[in-house]
Write a structure and sequence with these properties.
- The complex is a heterodimer of chains A (about 525) and B (about 260).
- Chain A has about 525 residues and is an alpha/beta fold.
- Chain A has 20 helices and 16 strands.
- The longest helix of chain B has 19 residues.
- The chains are: A alpha/beta (about 525), B alpha+beta (about 260).
């Protein structure tokens, strides 16, 4: 009898322990809601961590280091520790890992898609609305010790990208878009003239024309054995922009997935057609568009404007040896469009978020540093490292920045013409940019969009047939791989239907076990009572 | 009664656990049969090299080093007696990844591909089979700069008596090695190390790939301790990225030639 009592006690203890452990899986101890302190306490020392990404570009590292140095001079009681990453994905993974242990960084360069996932934890990311408008420490606030921009001086379109479910959880840091870097020399050699606005039809037509070979098997246009006329770096962006331009569905603002539609199917068939001839490929399949473009082995290379320093015959940065470079004229154009009268291009680039902490003063210190990244000194210096655009009108209109733009082509480093033309492209088309809706799962949907292009391209290269059956299977595989059937469900929008039979059986068994244990304990108690009363 | 209760609880537990499983053995068998029907003949190294890009390949090879595992995908340096195969992003559970030790023989089914000059097998699956082989490092010092070096792509190789040359970052600063290719990284962030070494007046670039040998590894620390002018022996894998780009796994002070 005592043995069974022990077993019951152990089981109850295990059940309690399991509940505690399982509840622990759902995240760390919740932090309180952040409230902006009345005053920043300068008598206390604060050490904050800043996780940033550089594009493996030493100049960017230097700008971060100088920004920290300058900021620490203004706020001697705040020490900023920089941790550099070369990949946004790694920052995202590390943040996710650190949320559960309450060891997130204080300030982090990130993307709104990622913030949407961070927000599944309670009060993990500090909302910035009240910080923006705080009289003393807000944007352009009276107690801020540097020349910070006012909220009106942040480009509204860029700021709006940092709003998730009606609240601001980030500030924009830099903005870029994609550009098509064109070998104009080869386009003209093929008998074409570049239109004012590049269209998909034009790109496909010229790309196919470039596939002609001579009797020795060399491509006529470049006299080489290798030519991939059209290479796209980010197929996620390719699909997203094509759908937007063609009015195809992608997702609703609430996270319902609309991507599996007829427009997507048409896009995939078109891509399959040109991948089959070898006229189109992707970064993941063939390598960096810049390497092919600069070696005269690509005509239309689509990559970020933030990669402009790698593009062109005189590119200051390169992964290929000098002897592989060929001379050609580079034209920096917008990504191909479906309708030149209604141009649509993606807005991308890093934003900055602030993680909540137990001490609101520490959060305020983080906010002051994040705000410092919006000063003209940081904005203009960083924008010049690549084809980035400053996110404030204050920086964009500053004389030193307009002077920089006016000196395009003066040298092949600071004033490298391809880089400055790429920057101007975004400045001129800011109103034509868009972002995709942000929700928990939007990062997966973005990956899925690109993966469909990758799969189709790979498949036709491997002589597989891309037909209706293939597309149907592709949709099913992508849905499963990226859990797209759970995206809307996580927002409570989807009826999951009845529980599977196995789950019902499992739950019923567990329930029955508890009932029996309860009955047993109760019976024991009654017996004890009876024994005592005897 | 006690016995009955204990038995009842035990049965319920077993039933509950069985309920968690969802295997359909008939489906498994059908899948297995289908896989057998689609089976491709195992290729020799020469047949593999002769295969078209984007064609399906099946090779039997031996693990020489593991570069990385993430999201159920493994990247491996493998080699048999005739040549080497770089296997990128092969489907592999974490549990199976642990079973892949140096020398383990595996049968790999995937697609031959080329990325920036690196010939590799992608979209692969594998099974562990009986056998073990660990390659000796082939001394390719005299082949550096020669056209036929590419015939040893991905093999485990050595470089003897190389002199460390200064590397220059994007701003013109010189160092014995750089964190990242342009010096944009920093200590403690587990970034790749790049360094130059010369022989017979020609300088070549070598990499410590941090996924293969992270900052806690001996080779990472050895490179961090290098000084310009040091003469070293090195071992590593003859990886390719827009030209030869060896992934170094060992750096030691050069031994005197006998």
């Amino acid at each position: 009898m005592r043995k069974l009592h022990k077993i019951t006690a152990v089981m109850v203890a295990l059940a309690i322990a399991s509940s505690v452990l399982l509840s622990g899986c759902h995240g760390s101890k919740d932090l309180g809601t952040f409230e902006v302190p009345e005053e920043f306490d300068t008598s206390k020392e604060y050490e904050i961590t800043f996780w940033a990404k550089n594009d493996t570009n030493k100049a960017q590292t230097n700008i971060y280091e100088k920004a920290i140095e300058d900021f620490e001079k203004l706020y001697p009681n705040i020490k900023v520790n920089l941790r550099l990453y070369t990949d946004y994905g790694k920052i995202y993974n590390d943040v996710i890992t650190n949320i559960s242990t309450n060891t997130t960084p204080n300030v982090c360069i990130t993307y709104p898609d990622h913030i949407a996932t961070y927000l599944t934890g309670t009060n993990v990311v500090a909302p910035l609305d009240n910080l923006f408008t705080d009289e003393k420490y807000g944007l352009g606030g009276s107690e801020v010790l540097f020349d910070s921009p006012t909220i009106d001086e942040i480009i509204p379109k860029f700021l709006e990208e940092c709003s998730i479910s009606g609240r601001y959880y980030a500030i924009p840091y830099m903005r870029s878009t994609e550009a098509c870097y064109v070998n104009k020399t080869y386009v003209e050699a093929l008998g074409y003239e570049l239109p004012e606005v590049l269209t998909w039809d034009f790109v496909w037509e010229v790309s196919e024309a470039a596939m002609a070979k001579d009797e020795d098997g060399n491509f006529i246009v470049n006299g080489q054995k290798v030519m991939i006329p059209f290479i796209y770096k980010s197929t996620d962006n390719m699909m997203i922009q094509m759908l937007r331009q063609m009015d195809g569905g992608y997702s609703t603002d609430r996270g319902e997935v609309l991507i599996f539609n007829d427009t997507t199917e048409d896009i995939l068939y078109t891509i399959a057609e040109h991948a089959a001839t070898g006229a189109f490929s992707t970064f993941k399949i063939s390598s960096y568009p810049a390497n092919f473009l600069n070696a005269g082995q690509c005509i239309f290379a689509v990559d970020s404007t933030a990669g402009a320093t790698w593009m062109g015959s005189d590119a200051p940065l390169s992964d290929i040896s000098e002897d592989k470079f060929v001379e050609f004229e580079t034209e920096v154009m917008t990504v191909p469009q479906a309708d030149p009268d209604n141009m649509q291009m993606i807005s991308q680039g890093p934003s900055v978020c602030i993680f909540n902490k137990e001490d609101p003063q520490e959060v305020l210190a983080s906010w002051l540093f994040a705000q410092f990244l919006l000063t003209n000194e940081v904005q203009i210096a960083y924008a010049q490292t690549e084809g980035y655009v400053p996110v404030t009108s204050k920086a964009q209109n500053a004389p030193e920045y307009t002077d920089y733009l006016s000196r395009s082509g003066e040298d092949d480093s600071t004033y490298y013409d391809v880089k400055i033309e790429a920057t101007k492209l975004l400045l001129e088309h800011t109103d034509d940019t868009f972002v995709t809706p942000v929700f928990n799962g939007s990062a997966s949907l973005r990956d899925a969009a690109g993966q469909m292009i990758e799969n189709v391209t790979k498949s036709v290269r491997r002589n597989e047939t891309v037909d209706d059956e293939y597309i149907e299977e592709l949709y099913a595989d992508i849905t499963s791989l990226y859990h797209l059937d759970q995206t809307a469900a996580s927002l409570g929008k989807t009826d999951l239907g009845p529980l599977p039979k196995t789950s019902v059986a499992l739950l019923a068994t567990l329930g029955a076990a508890w009932v029996i244990m309860g009955v047993y304990v109760l019976r024991g108690a009654i017996r004890n009572k009876k024994n005592r009363s005897k | 009664m006690k016995k009955f209760l204990a038995l009842l609880l035990a049965f319920m537990l077993v039933f509950a656990l069985v309920g968690c499983g969802d295997k359909n053995t008939d489906d498994d068998k059908k899948e297995e049969e289908q896989e057998n029907e689609n089976e491709v003949q195992v290729m020799s190294y020469d047949e593999y090299m002769a295969a078209e890009l984007d064609s399906e390949v099946v090779v039997e090879t031996y693990v020489q080093a593991k570069q990385a595992w993430a999201e159920d995908k493994a990247t491996l340096y493998t080699q048999d007696e005739n040549g080497a195969y770089f296997i990128y992003g092969m489907a592999c559970s974490e549990e199976d990844y642990e079973k892949l030790t140096v020398g383990t023989k595996i049968r790999v089914t995937g697609f031959k591909s080329e990325w920036a000059g690196e010939v590799e097998i992608i979209d692969a699956t594998f099974e562990i089979i009986e056998g073990n082989y660990v390659a000796e490092a082939l001394d390719v010092t005299s082949m550096l700069g020669a056209e036929d070096l590419i015939n040893h792509q991905n093999e485990f190789v050595s470089f003897k008596g190389m002199t460390i040359e200064a590397s220059t970052d994007a701003e013109g600063n010189e160092a014995a090695f750089l964190y990242n290719w342009d010096g944009s990284g920093e200590e403690g962030t587990n970034c790749d190390l790049y360094f130059n070494a010369s022989i017979d007046g020609q300088t070549y670039t070598f990499t410590v790939e941090s996924d293969l040998c992270d900052e806690s590894s001996d080779v990472y620390k050895a490179v961090q301790a290098l000084k310009v002018g040091d003469v070293v022996d090195m071992e590593g894998f003859l990886y390719w990225y827009e030209g030869v780009n060896p992934h170094i796994t060992s750096v030691t002070a050069a031994t005197e030639a006998e």
